[in-house]
Amino acid sequence: xxxxxxxxxxxxxxxxxxxxxxxxxxxxxxxxxxxxxxxxxxxxxxxxxxxxxxxxxxxxxxxxxxxxxxxxxxxxxxxxxxxxxxxxxxxxxxxxxxxxxx
Length: 102
Ligand SMILES: [Zn+2]
Known about the structure:
Layout: E1 10-15, E2 19-23, E3 28-31, H1 33-38, E4 66-72, E5 76-81, E6 89-91, H2 92-101
Antiparallel strand pairs: 1-2, 2-3, 4-5, 5-6
This protein binds zinc ion.
């Protein structure tokens, strides 16, 4: 049995068919590009005051993909998307919980 750490961090990230994240505790996440782009938490996709999503899902290209990713501090990842959007900061917790929320 894998022991789930509260603050698991990504050990390895592979941008392939989807986003594959191997966490330091051995857990593996697969997240679809479209779903993650659709869940972008930045101020232009979510209304900061109301917390409501302002991004229109149908405005996202179906073939969206991240060109690259980078670490943000010690808590998040930033993706540079093929639709030129790069302001979303995806916290580890959000990524870790992502496939459970689908
Ligand atoms: Zn965004």
